[in-house]
Amino acid sequence: MTPTSTTPTTRRDFLGKSAVTAGALTVAQSAWAAGSDQIKVGLIGSGGRGSGAANQALSTKQEGVVLHAICDAFKEKAEGALSNLRTKHADKVKVDDSRIFAGLDGYKKVIDSCDLVILTTPPGFRPYHFEAAINAGKHVFMEKPVAVDAPGVRKVIEMAKVADEKNLKVVVGLQRRYQNCYLDALKQVKEQNIIGDIVSGQVYWNGGGIWFRDKQPGQSELMYQINNWYFFTWLCGDHINEQHIHNIDVANWFIGGHPESAQGMGGRMQRVDKKYGQIYDHHYVEYTYANGVRVNSQCRHQQGVYNAVREEFTGTKGKIYLNNSGACYAVDHKGNTIWKYRPSGGAAAGAEGEQKGKKSRRSGSDPDPYQVEHDTLQAAIRDNKPLNNAYYGAESTMTSVLGRMATYSGKEIKWDEAFNSKVQHMPAIVTAETEPPAKPTADGGYPVAIPGQQIPGAEVL
Ligand SMILES: NC(=O)c1ccc[n+]([C@@H]2O[C@H](COP(=O)([O-])OP(=O)(O)OC[C@H]3O[C@@H](n4cnc5c(N)ncnc54)[C@H](O)[C@@H]3O)[C@@H](O)[C@H]2O)c1
Questions:
Q1: Which DSSP category does 380 fall into?
Q2: Ligand 1 pocket mutation pick from 49, 214, 229, 244 by most atoms within 8 angstroms of CB
């Protein structure tokens, strides 16, 4: 029950997916397909998720997978991650000191020396690291979101086509697409038609907030922003993009396409101190899909308020409730339960949404979707099967960015207008000498978008 490919062909036009020629398919062969017994993994961005993803890459059942090179913007983070990985996988961590790279160009050296790269820096860098990896003919696991702005999304789509032409495999860390409860729910909706046609939905990522990293003595403004990346649009894309993309992606996936327009509202109410960069602490967006299907999206970083991380869809025959705890179920319009997710070998998780069954990201004996991502990727490389999640990763990233454009501007924005936007928050090349795109303001803060106004340094479209 794992997804193997990309995006329904109905969306081929938007994505501009090219037909892959037979000749192009022979361009690249994986290390395994070419008869090598080893696959060298490289980690680019060795923070929390990078360490987790590298651990998962080394925890598959495949023989011959080794961690070969590592980099981080900060040397101590690369060394810290490596030390933890050595503790767990002493026999698979083969990173010579000469292959521990620090700084903003370390990614090039990791890409050069490895077969499969894990891209887990802040998302702003993703399109350009993905471009370098695909141009170099490497397989990719990359975390969501895959960009922070429309030019970045377009770059990812352009490189996704090149990945297809080179027969490279790409997985994007939208792990709900690899999670059994979501896959079963999708089958119920699409194949069994249990709720009929979807007419509306609600998606939520309302949580208490995120870490903050203070400026260190002697640290440049650029390196401060990169370390404290969450609070800067050019690096993070705001939390509607960074976290809420998971739920927005579920909406696109279940509805089978991207919205046609969005309008919304948002701002900073609790997290108002100037030190908190540019991002909002809440966004509400009304997305309109084809045939007037509406999805309401909420995400919030506030304390002492209603929290929820989940999705629900209303159809002509009933409603389905989804939650990554495994508490997924459907009811008809009279409230009768018509489906409840039952994990393999385990009891069904709590059935009333996020309050129950909260203990883990999976339920019963279901596999960990974070692990399934790497199992699937390595199996596709070994068996030379098509696998490229970059198209839907780009589409859902664009949907989140569209939402942010709507909340930052306060205007209704059409998909095409957003997708073709020239506003590029993230420079394609960032070196230690680059001026940080977010310029500190005279009052000690940073430019923050205000709906209905043009704020220099916080351009929207
Ligand atoms: N799928 C999921 O559930 C999930 C969960 C957590 C994070 N993520 C994603 O993973 C990514 C990383 O998040 P995180 O929580 O690990 O953040 P983090 O801050 O812990 O790690 C990011 C690391 O990248 C490094 N870095 C920054 N710029 C770099 C560059 N140019 N080259 C090399 N290294 C660089 C940082 O120093 C840091 O160590 C984000 O895109 C985030 O959205 C996904």
A1: H
A2: 49
Query: Does the predicted TM-score (pTM) go above 0.85?
Result: yes
Q: Is the CB of 312 under 6 A from ligand 1?
A: no
Please give the number of the atom of ligand 1 that sits closest to the Cα of 74. Answer: 37
Distance CA 423, CA 98 (A): 39
What domains does the chain contain, in order, with CATH numbers? 12-176+370-393 (3.40.50.720), 180-366+400-406 (3.30.360.10)
User: Can you tell me the distance from the alpha carbon of 412 to that of 34, in angstroms, rounded to the nearest whole number?
Assistant: 51
Work out the angle at residue 218's Cα, subtended by the Cα atoms of residues 215 and 223, and round it to the nearest 5 degrees: 55
pLDDT tens digits, residue range 214-270? 999 999 999 999 999 999 999 999 999 999 999 999 999 999 999 999 999 999 999
- The response to whether residue 340 sits with its C-beta less than 6 Å from ligand 1 reads no
Helix (H, G, I), strand (E, B) or coil at 389: coil
State how far the Cα of 11 lies from the Cα of 1, in Å rounded to an integer: 23
Give 314's Cβ-side CA count (13 Å radius).
11
Q: Is the CB of 121 under 6 A from ligand 1?
A: yes
The Cα 4–Cα 309 span in angstroms is 26
Q: CA-CA distances (angstroms) from residue 377 to 48, 343, 380, 430?
A: 21, 23, 5, 29
Is 322 a pocket residue for ligand 1 (Cβ < 6 Å)? no
Does 346 have pLDDT greater than 70? no
Cα torsion at 47, 309, 438, 110 (round to 10°)? Answer: 30
What does the pLDDT look like over 263-290, one tens digit per residue? 999 999 999 999 999 999 999 999 999 9
